[in-house]
Structure formats: C-alpha cells, structure tokens
Specification:
The structure is a single chain. The protein has 159 residues and is an all-alpha fold. 85% of the residues lie in helices and 0% in strands. The radius of gyration is 20 Å and the shape is elongated. It has five helices and no strands.
C-alpha cells in the first residue's frame, strides 16, 4: 500500500512538473511573439504617422502604446530568461512592403484593414495568454483593453 501511495505521489509530481514545463514553454513562446508583435506595430505605426492621411494619429497611437507595452513585455520576458527580440513579424514586414507602395486614401484603407485583422488575431492570442498563471497572465489581461481600443479605432478608420 505504501509503495502504491509513493508511486501515485511520484506520478502526480511528474505530471505537475510536465504541465508546468508546458505552461512555461507556452508563456515563453507568447512573450517572444508579443515582442515581435509590438515591434511590428511600432514599425507600421511609424509608417502610418509619416505616410498616411487619416491614419497619422492612429499610427502615432500605435507607436506610443506598443513602445510602452514592449518595455513591459521585455521586463516579464527577462524574468523568465526569454531574450529580447527586435524582429517584426514576417506578415508585418510583408504588409510594410505593400503599404510603402501606397499613398493617400489607398494607404489609409489598406492600413486600417490590416490593423483591424491583426488586432482581432492579437486579441485572441492575448485572451488565451490571460489564462496563464503569474506575470504572463496578468500582462495579457492588462493589455486586452488597449488591444480592443486599437481594434475599435482601426474599424472606425476602415469605415
């Protein structure tokens, strides 16, 4: 009986450790993606602030909000030994290349459409991360209102 209890305790301990490692891996992946997402929003926001018409103020808001958010993400990432990441998402780089060829209303329309789609995707990812324990979950929870604000503004710009 004692061996059965010890075996059960050991199995539960291993299962708990495996679940923690999986959560930790998901959290680390989320933090890497969050950094790249912030880098992407800053990059595209700067482009909108410089090249857009109706999107100038929105672009600057993205630069300001995502620059500040990046600092928070990097603080949590550092606490989990996740390295800083200065890369943008490949999809954002592709969109930047597309946007650089557009001007005026065409730029604004494409930018707003991309930002609405991107922020919907981000909200989904942050809602999942908000369920994670600890600092990562809290960071995601605290970020959701800003992402919703960005989505609302992008949808207003897109008509």
């Amino acid at each position: 009986m004692k061996n059965l209890i010890l075996t059960s305790v050991a199995a539960l301990t291993l299962a708990g450790a495996a679940a923690h490692a999986e959560t930790s891996d998901k959290a680390r992946h989320f933090l890497k993606d969050a950094q790249q997402g912030d880098n992407s929003e800053v990059m595209l926001g700067k482009l909108a602030a410089a090249q857009g018409e109706a999107t100038k103020a929105y672009g600057q808001m993205l630069v300001d909000d995502h620059s500040m958010h990046l600092q928070k993400v990097q603080k949590v990432a550092a606490s989990m030994n996740v390295p800083k990441d200065a890369e943008a998402m490949p999809a954002a780089e592709k969109e930047r290349d597309k946007l650089m060829k557009l001007h005026g209303a065409k730029f604004d329309q494409e930018f707003a459409k991309y930002m609405a789609k991107d922020h919907k995707k981000d909200i989904g990812e942050y809602e999942k991360a908000a369920k994670m324990p600890g600092d990562v979950g809290k960071l995601a929870q605290d970020t959701l209102p800003t992402l919703h604000k960005h989505l609302d503004e992008a949808q207003k710009l897109g008509g």
